[in-house]
Amino acid sequence: LPIHPEKNNEDAKLVQNYLNKFYAIEPDPNQLGWKINAESADEKLQKMQQFFGLKVTGKLDNETLEIMKKPRCGVPDVGL
Amino acid sequence: YGFTLPGWKKTKLTYRIMNYTPDLSKEDVDKAVEKAFKVWSAVTPLIFTRILKGVADIMIAFGTKVHGHCPRYFDGPLGVLAHAFPPGRGLGGDVHFDEDEDWTTGSSGFNLFLVAAHEFGHSLGLSHSNDPRALMFPNYAYISPSEFPLSPDDISGIQSIYGSSQNTPDKRPTTPTSPKICGSQMSFDAITTLRQEVIFLKGRHLWRVYPDNSEAERELISAFWPNLTPSIEAAYENTKDQILLFKGNKFWVISGYQVLLGYPKNINTLGFPKGVKKVDAAVCNKSTGKTDFFIGDKYWRFDENSQSMEKGYPRLTVDEFPGISQKVDAVFQQKGLFYFFHGSKQWEFDPIAKKVIREMKSNIWFNC
User: Fold this and answer.
1) Least confident interval from A21-25, A26-30, B14-18, B42-46
2) Residues B102-126: pLDDT tens digits?
3) Number of Cβ atoms within 10 Å of the Cβ of B69
């Protein structure tokens, strides 16, 4: 992710975790085959920014990070 | 809204509460869950029945981190609060709450009823909505329990899967979902003047009152400002024919009913220190061009001309406004006098004589 070096790695981990949890295509828990999601981090970040009506840059900014830190539901924002 | 078809193939669904949280009594959990199902049965033909043993369509459980055979994990306090699975066999329809959260029946911590109603939306086949006013919006937002939590977006979503409750008597609450303005306990989130009008805000609604003839028009806030979230916390009209609306550490500037571009901004751009997280109420004194921001038992003074916070603040509210000793929910100025609101009461205050003139019910401005 194009994260500025001074961003502490805690934020970097949070962002990575957030995108993998909510913007990776989640396989159906009742099916055997689990599809590996090949989308890049930028693409996932753009999807997240689009979903929340943020500026879609694929770059991490404060507003995007602030949204990621809010308590939320654990269901992905993109379809199963 | 979004959904994952085909949804349940039946309208009679069962649910079972597998375990409880130590944060609440069992009765509170049972009630919150039952009330959360009623939200969805009110707008669809669906009927929910609780069973105490065996496998239900919707199995409800509290867990932490890696829990049971669930492929999703919880993450400790905050972060992920709960999750659910779309209709189907096995895990399908099931709902899990993160026991590491602080579950409540009120506005502190996380309100179990609101989170359960959201998760049951998933159990019925809804996915997340990107409408910030929707219950199915991914991020948690507290809504006053007196409000019906479903937005038009939620209702359209669930009825696109199951149809409306037309073939069964409409079970939506008969009372209007907006608070009863003439109720004896009526309180307000925020109040501001706007030219000749006084605008009262509460939850998702606003009332525009023309004091001279105390006519009032009720509207949805979203009808005026589609992108604003409900439950505005403070509002005031400045000296430039604009109103400012506050929620959490954000504020919007509205000119002629249009939200100005570049908003919301953070309130520390007004000069509040980082530690200030929200504003309870605000009013601009038209005679002095100074705006008072009320937070807890103190107030800050902002100079509208220089657009800067004055030095030497915050100060105790009661020192400048004797008799106004409780937290200020809302305040506005009318014909030179201030009206301070707390709960279901208001106090008319003369800023020149610096004294309370009279105490009244909060809703005397409406033709109750």
Assistant:
1) A26-30
2) 999 999 999 999 999 999 999 999 9
3) 8
Output B326-329 pairs: Cβ under 8 A, ≥24 positions apart: B327/B280, B327/B294, B327/B296, B327/B297, B328/B280, B328/B281, B328/B294, B329/B187, B329/B188, B329/B189, B329/B190, B329/B280, B329/B281
Q: Does B336 touch chain A (CB under 8 A)?
A: no
> Does B314 sit behind a cis peptide bond, omega within 30 degrees of 0 on the bond before it?
yes
Q: Is B116 exposed, middle or buried (0-12, 13-18, 19+ CB in 10 A)?
A: buried
Q: How confident is the model at residue B24 (pLDDT cuts 50, 70, 90)?
A: very high
Q: Which chain B residues have a beta carbon less than 8 Å from that of A73?
A: 80-84, 115, 118-119, 122, 128, 138, 140
B218 pLDDT above the threshold of 80:
no
Half-sphere exposure of B175 (CA within 13 A, CB side): 9
CB contact A67 to B (< 8 Å)? yes
